Amino acid sequence: VQLQASGGGLVQPGGSLRLSCAASGKIFSIVRMGWYRQAPGKERDLVASVTNTGNTDYADSVKGRFTISRDNTKNALYLQMNSLKPEDTAVYYCNLRDRLFNSVRDFWGQGTLVTVSS
Question: Cα separation of 110 and 51, whole Å?
Fold first, then answer.
C-alpha cells in the first residue's frame, strides 16, 4: 500500500491550504484514515481522523479551523486547513489503518511540509 500526500507549502498566517492523500495498492477493509503532524523537535501527533463509519476526531488545537474529509470511491483523504497559525507549521503525514480478520496494518505517506509564516 502506498500513500501519496500533497498540497503543502508556504502560507501566511490566516491563510488556507488543502492537503490531499491518495492511497493505492492492496488495501483491505479500511478502519480509519487520518492526518498527523510533526514539528521540529516534537513528536508526531494526531491532527484529525475519520473512521470507516464517518466519525471524525480532531486535535483541540485545530477544532473549528481544520476539516477532514474522505472520498471512499478513490481511497482519498483530504484536510482543509483554514485560519492557519505559525504553530501549525509541521510536516503533515497521512495514515491509513486497515484490517483483515484479526490483522491490523498501519501505513504512512511520505509527508508534506506546511510552513505558516509572514
Answer: 21
**Buried-state track 41-62, b at ≥16 Cβ within 10 A, e below 16:** eeebeebbbbeeeeeeebeeeb
Q: Which cell is 10 given?
A: 508556504
Quick count: other Cβ atoms within 10 Å of Cβ 70? 21
Q: How many CA atoms lie within 13 A of 27 on its CB side?
A: 23
Distance of alpha carbon 7 from alpha carbon 25, whole angstroms: 21
CA angle in degrees (0–180, nearest 5) for 87-90-93: 135
Rounded CA separation 65/63 (Å): 5
Rounded Cα distance, 58 and 38, in Å: 15
- Among 63, 107, 61, 82, smallest CA distance to 19 is for 82
Is pLDDT above 90 for 72? no
The model's pLDDT over 82-105, given as tens digits with 9 standing for 90+, comes to 999 999 999 999 999 999 889 999
